[in-house]
Amino acid sequence: MKKLCVLIIIVGLILVGCSQKQENKISASPIETSSETVTSTKAITIELKETEEIDLFTKAVNDSIKEPGIVNMTNPQYQFTIGKESYLLWIAEDSGTIMNTKDTHTIYSLPSSAVVEIYEFVNKG
To answer: Quick one: CA dihedral 8, 9, 11, 16, positive or negative?
Structure first.
């Protein structure tokens, strides 16, 4: 009888111990991941309507050069869509970078000829 009581107590303790709900404490990190940073921004949407505009941006995307490594970018200035693909754009007078919204860990540098044309396009008017 004594063995039965000890066995019941041990089984009871095991069941109670296994049924305890574990609490996972997650502290808020002050650093956001690049995908969260990029997708939570309000970039200016560039609507490509004319064939010349679409051709300009398509050529820029096709001629862009993939940069190695995982990136953490600032908020994008612009967003544009070509077909089913959506891109984020960072552009300055002397450099330009794009990122496909489906792969926010990779950036592509625009060739200098595309930088000049796209910079003029976004700053016209």
So the answer is: positive
Amino acid present at 97? T
CB 65 within 8 A of CB 111: yes
Taking CA atoms, 105 is separated from 2, 32, 58, 80, 90, in Å, by 64, 13, 21, 18, 15
pLDDT of 37-60, one tens digit each? 444 558 899 999 899 999 999 999
Pairing state of beta strands 44-46 and 78-82? parallel
Residue type, 61: V
121: Cβ–Cβ under 8 A, 6 or more apart, which residues? Answer: 53, 56
Lowest mean pLDDT among 49-58, 64-73, 102-111, 112-121: 64-73
